[in-house]
């Protein structure tokens, strides 16, 4: 999820040489020939082929019996994909529901946390709260599963020009809208670069043509004046209006002139802009209609409810050489299940505590995943004041408060009620909240949100539900930070005897369902290949 | 719709003075006190109060009889709002349906243009084509009407990081995705400004603190290296991947290193970036679920179908001093309607040709609206290849081809079929297409689209329908460019005797439904005030 840059010096040097002499056309054509340029024909679908029943034709073999530990996305996908070829899969899920961190809370849902705190959600009908993942990028394999499973999708509003930015520590006493903040930052950036360029400060880097094109771009990008106006940024209607243009001669009331350059940079609003450039966060983003858990629900339905044992806590995993024995506790009773193979698709730090005979190296590797805390609160309001009063239809407000982000709902526009995510934070901020009672969490989130949204943030509240992933039994964390490239990490990519591992923690898209899906596919492919090879 | 900047020198000078000494906090507080800063409590709702039946209580008066010319958004809204107070309204609409330019085409719809060309749309069930307006900004009063009328809305995908940019005239031979183009342009812009800043070229404009903050912003904004790397932009994962990160040790395949700076600016991809900053175009944008014409349909239902006469072409308007007489042709027959007032809500250039006794000044003013041509084509495909093959779920591709824009659908994600808007152009480009037969238009659009999308752009096509607004009878144009501030424009803001004028052409939001709504409200308020005053 971080923004890593990658240097490919030799290719780059070659391309520069082509580019300099041939212009953009030659450059792009060359890139295409080298497989570097985007091509309309290029497929981004991973080269996964699901196991099929016909794979066993003429082999005399058939799908094996597999026990899957954990009914999150990775576990469900493992059973789903293996099931296509007739594998006999059983999922053991320790919680009372499938989905794992893909958790959607609705009215009537009850959760008991590690501290024994019980929360019963009392959201209204039609109101839901995605306590775990909330968004999907277009390129993610999650989209393919939604299509394949018939889970309808809609836009997740990951950015909104009318959402707020509020940096209290920078001295802001009022929030500023994204559109306003962007106009000002881009305006001043353009002014500065135009001045430097026009004064010749960059002549060693720019040709005359570059310079003219850059200046032309900056005038458009920053809405700045021309040379005669010393390229100054003095404001633009992109900042927004206090009263938008109307009938007759009503040109509207512009929001006003921008604060001085120093104040704009001191307010540090620009720190949030690059979020939307992220390969994983850029709009458009999507969500299942009706709640993120439509995905695990559809997977569970496809797998078959009879293959899923809920409230089944794994207590031991033993590789017997020719089979695997898994013992588990369900309803106060110990049971055992024997299978040809096992896929462990529960969090690594929990699997590390399950007694097994897979070796100390496996335990050490499993225990070597640093775990991140994260939490969210869902606030149901009796009115959609953010839409009617503030004209914010979805999107995210960014703050430097300990609530971090506030999400406005991407569904139910213009409805009677609605649910705002009042905080979505990680690390120390998340632990601050997870240490509080649900009532205290709500109070803390509300008391901060009113700074941005005014009194209705408190007065229109109906009910709330907060989820602390570090205090969630059988999960105990939001996501991990794999130590890629270490022997321990690589060890878990191989089966330990008859036991395979799967989960987003064994992928390069940790904390995304995409990671869980591709890791499950990887385990499925390896297992199926082994069974096919006999 | 243009990006005008407005200078408010005295306020600005004062604010600068405050800002310099007080920092961002003081600055924003001062702006708030001056009514310039965004305020959470500030309402952006126009100060319109709909006429009510109770307005006539104790006055001895009642709603008058009003004939409305034109059943577009302005005409429908006029009748809708006046109807709330019991006015007896009749709408005369020359076309066979209401909505005016708010036109949604579905399978079975038939349109005959000014040249006698007949098109019968054969789109599949559930596929629709918004030939006119397609999007709504959050602040627009159009949103309020959707809420009031119970028209459900959903996100209109006005931008997408995965849509393409293709500038053929700049020598591009392959399209580039927005995300890639943005990463490269912002990367190089950041590199250049960081270099100039660090070299002291901007010391006269920046304090030491400004400089540090700016450099920090640029590193985040452009994903550039630090001082040790001479602030160089050498690529970023924001450009995208040819293969996205996967399981195990699959870090993905970055799209490659960026083209050289000169090529990036020569490709002119940056010219499209500021579109999304526009006060009227910035995401999030919205559309009615099921087609834009859900708005006029809901308005017509609220007005009452018995008050709307279709295929009724106005042939004369005569102000008799105490009443207005309107003659119209319907089904080959001349009819007359007499009312207390008339609201002319048809295009000004058409009203200018209707015989009337309102004076030569009115005719001259009505004829003084330059008219813009615009056209769109809807292309129905048997598969949603843009989603499955190119991972584009909505959004807009920008080109310098005469098709200008390509819109991917904002509805029906993951469905079987889908409709792409194959061109949306204006002016000379629109007239180029409107001069062709529907078959020729389709062929021209397809032959260009394949350059961007490959063969499926042709091979998957099922059917198409194109709409040329300059060739549409009773409309004859897409929108106008009012000569704001001229005596002629101002003349039409006043009633000509008992005849009022309304339409987006009498607003500062031409070509937007918002303009039609607010202009109608303005006419309604003036008329109601007059009736109330007796």
From TrEMBL, chains A, B:
Names of the cofactor(s): FAD
Domain of life: Bacteria
Membrane spanning residue stretches: none
PANTHER family, per the entry: AMINE OXIDASE, FLAVIN MONOAMINE OXIDASE
Residues engaged in binding FAD: 93-94, 132-135, 314
SUPFAM superfamilies xref list: FAD-linked reductases, C-terminal domain (SSF54373), FAD/NAD(P)-binding domain (SSF51905)
This protein's name: Amino acid oxidase
Entries under InterPro entries matching the protein: Amino_oxidase, FAD/NAD-bd_sf, Flavin_amine_oxidase, Flavin_monoamine_oxidase, TAT_signal
Keyword Transcription: no
Residues that hold substrate according to the record: 135, 423
Entry annotated with the keyword Oxidoreductase: yes
Biological-process GO terms, alphabetical: amino acid catabolic process
Residue span, Amine oxidase domain: 73-526
GO MF assignments: L-amino-acid oxidase activity
Keywords in alphabetical order: Oxidoreductase
